[in-house]
Amino acid sequence: MRIDAAKFFSFSPTGTTQKVLEGIAQGLGWPEAERVDLTRPKAQAQGVCDSGVLTVIGAPVYAGRLPAEAVRRLRPLRGKGGPAVLFVVYGNRAYEDALLELSNLAVELGFFPIGAGAFIGEHSFSTPATPVAVGRPDAADLRLAREFGQAVAAKLAAAPGTAAMDPLIVPGNMPYRDGATTGGLAPETVADECERCGQCVTACPVGCVHLEDSGVVTDKAACIRCCACVKGCPTGARVMTDASIQAIATRLATNCKDRKAPEYFV
């Protein structure tokens, strides 16, 4: 199948999805293809991808589902029946319905999924006290991301078009499980550790962190608990202290120690 161009879309608050995307891009043979970062506030996927464009879409997994914010930002995108490569990144617990949700969304938007993968990234709630999948995706993960991209490239080279391909089947259930709730809880700032550098403001994908005269202020109602501000704080001043979140982090660190391997479907 002839591919005239490739376009990559990603929602990646803590950077793990973006790392996997780069590995897939190398495997596909499109390392210089256009990237659309959907992580920044007010970002949206826009326009139409023609049938000769290979579209790659990646997002993290929150509680077994796609982040609602990622779905909202992808919805304006349209395809003309062209091939799509889809992947999700989860924190070593489970990706549950997220990959199926992304596949169904891609079809709804007018794409034909030809490959899908689930990869592992350091969990958003991972801390030195409650480590979960620290440092992932690592070299082994990225090697598999490249392998996934190569498998998709081979599939494209072997087929005259998407009409000759069978529909892609990926794991998941419908109706989807309940996703993550948002609002009411958010990271806090340890004032004595804060240098007012503003990196937490820059890192927030929904623009709910503000630097004011009184210090760092967070709109808890808007927070999606991605923990980008926590991961990006150079002094460790941004912390998640809520007891319910701490309990989740402790449970994850206890129960999700065994290394899970990426898997893909082509």
From TrEMBL:
Keyword field: 4Fe-4S, Iron, Iron-sulfur, Metal-binding
The cross-references to Pfam families, in alphabetical order and at most eight, read: Fer4
InterPro entries on file: 4Fe4S_Fe-S-bd, 4Fe4S_Fe_S_CS, Flavoprotein-like_sf, PSI_iron-sulfur_center
Domain 4Fe-4S ferredoxin-type: from-to ranges: 185-214, 216-243
- Please name the GO terms that the record assigns under molecular function: 4 iron, 4 sulfur cluster binding; metal ion binding
User: Origin, by domain of life?
Assistant: Bacteria
Question: Does the record carry Transport as a key word?
Answer: no
Q: Which PANTHER family match?
A: FERREDOXIN (PTHR24960:SF80), PHOTOSYSTEM I IRON-SULFUR CENTER-RELATED (PTHR24960)
- Any idea what this protein is called? 4Fe-4S ferredoxin iron-sulfur binding domain protein
Q: Which organism is it from?
A: Solidesulfovibrio fructosivorans JJ]
